[in-house]
Amino acid sequence: MHIHFIGVGGTAMGSVAIACTMQGHTVTGSDGPLYPPMSTVLDEAGITRYEGYSAERLRELTPDLIVVGNAISRGNPELECVLTDRLPMTSMAEFVGKYLISRNTSIVCCGTHGKTTTSSMAAWLLAHAGRDPGFLIGGVPGNFTVGCRPVPEHIHDSHAGVFVSEGDEYDTAFFDKRSKFVHYRPTIAIINNIEFDHADIFNSLEEIIRSFTHMVRIIPQHGVLLVNADDANALRAAEQAPCPTETVGTNPDATWRLIDIEEDGATTRWTLLRDGSEYGKFSLPMPGEHNIRNASMAIAATTHAGLSAAEQASALMAFRAPKRRLEEIAQWNGCTVIDDFAHHPTAIAKTIQALHQRFPGSRLHVVFEPRSNTTTRNFFQDELATCFAGATTVCIGPVNRPERYSEDERLDTARLLRDLSNLNVDAHALHPDRAQDRTWGQDIVTLLRERVTSGDVIAVLSNGDVGGLRTMLSAQS
Fold it and tell me: Is 219 found in the same domain as 306?
């Protein structure tokens, strides 16, 4: 089959396109200008890609199926051609559900935080045990060379395969506003946690919980729902589950209970009870209680897929975190530079806690770029003033694309600076006008150079480019 991807340069779209080549399909794609590493990865996979969008070219290609990316909207020339000519069209999530997951056991890892790490862990536990799972992971997994791969052909559609998905609650496409995870039809579903996020598509926490309940409703009766025992919102979403529900957490009543947690630098150890009896002792080469919660979810899920505690314990010791999850990227002026994806107050607080575990006694300098559709607005104005507890220095970058919001709606970084200073934090905020300069990271370099000493830690928290700061710190290391 010839499959064409409109918006092939997106991380998930590109990964799925590559998985299609593994299945033997002919794959083409179009997007705006692409740069390494995505351009290189697509080229190495043998995908013919085009810069820019052309209705005429699409008609000449005559693909059998067209996958429309989440970022593609009306007015795109190729999309308008698809609609005018009534060409076969699908979304990425629907394609994954139909052609990659199909009739295999579907493990779907959902939640506001931790879904990339949890899905990476679940896929790795299965792979280490020789189960050869298919998977779709939104980030760049540390134990695999690709973010998506199909179940091997000899077991695909036989019910014998397992496919692990990162269950994103974001909407599917311009024509399908359901959350992506609905298309993955979980056999085993994980709800790690639920908080307000994605302010561009959800108006309230209630809307987000409702979206999770839609996913819960389609779990088969023989399936299982794994839910955070310590998260009230996750428990609410699980209330009407049509399948067995098991809880995971530190709550004494949890089905899977975490006890005897020991933090030792970059390693965390714990014991996991199942229904009150010891299931196993585990060690994870990652700091932070949130990461052993992720791991415990992956353990519970893969237990239902047939793995033993011994297999899981062995695999976890060899687990490598996805890119941009507490990732050490450079040494700069005697400091360790850590890159992390944290862009929500809860995630920021947990990241800071994990860094203090990993680097006990080190001073921590945090750089945060308000970039997500939630943190660029003032929904978390107060929470952002308190989540940096434990940091010596906090540098707030300019709000990304501030012109999207009115002044009353936008995050007020001047107020955030005042609030942090009132908490005796050495806080700094770049002027909003600096957002127009793509090299504003140089301002942060100047601030840091005046404050850091050898042995300190610099944490760069953003899902964007941070004004080129990462490259600057790496180049000068």
Answer: yes
| pLDDT at residue number 355 | 96
User: What pLDDT is stored for residue 475 in this prediction?
Assistant: 83
Which amino acid, 23? Q
pLDDT confidence of residue 456: 97
User: pLDDT (tens digit, 9 = 90+) per residue, 296-344?
Assistant: 999 999 999 999 999 999 999 999 998 889 999 999 999 999 999 888 9
Burial of 449 (0-12, 13-18, 19+ CB in 10 A): exposed
User: Three-state DSSP class for 206?
Assistant: helix
165 - beta bridge partners?
A: 108, 136
**Where residue 361 sits, what CATH number does that domain have?**
3.90.190.20
Cα distances (angstroms) measured from residue 455 to each of 137, 258, 334: 34, 33, 6
In this structure, what DSSP letter does residue 180 have? G
- Phi, psi dihedral angles at 364 (to 5 degrees): -115, 125
Residue 107 near residue 164, CB atoms below 8 Å: yes
Q: Which residues contact 247 (CB under 8 A, 6 or more apart)?
A: 226, 227, 228, 229, 235, 253, 254, 255, 256
How many domains does one find in the chain? 3
Pairing of strands 457-461, 188-191: unpaired
443 membership: H or E segment, kind and range: helix 441-449
Angle 289-304/115-128 helices, nearest 10 degrees? 50
**191 and 300 assigned to the same domain:** yes
Residues in the chain: 477
In this prediction, residue 157 carries a pLDDT of: 66
For residue 322, being part of any structural domain is answered with: no
C-alpha neighbours within 13 Å on the C-beta side of residue 320 = 11
DSSP-assigned states of every residue in 392-437: SEEEEPPPSSGGGS-TTTB--HHHHHHHHHHTT-EEEE--GGGGG-
How many alpha carbons fall within 13 Å on the CB side of residue 200?
A: 11
CA–CA separation, 179 vs 3, rounded Å? 23
Q: 269 and 305: one domain?
A: yes
The residue type of 477 is S
- What pLDDT shows up at residue 392? 95
Residue spans of the chain under pLDDT 50: none
What integer pLDDT is reported at residue 444 of this predicted model?
A: 95
The contacts of residue 195 (CB under 8 Å, 6+ apart) are 112, 113, 205, 233, 344, 346
Position 477 scores a pLDDT of 56
| Cα 16 to Cα 29: distance, rounded to the nearest angstrom | 11
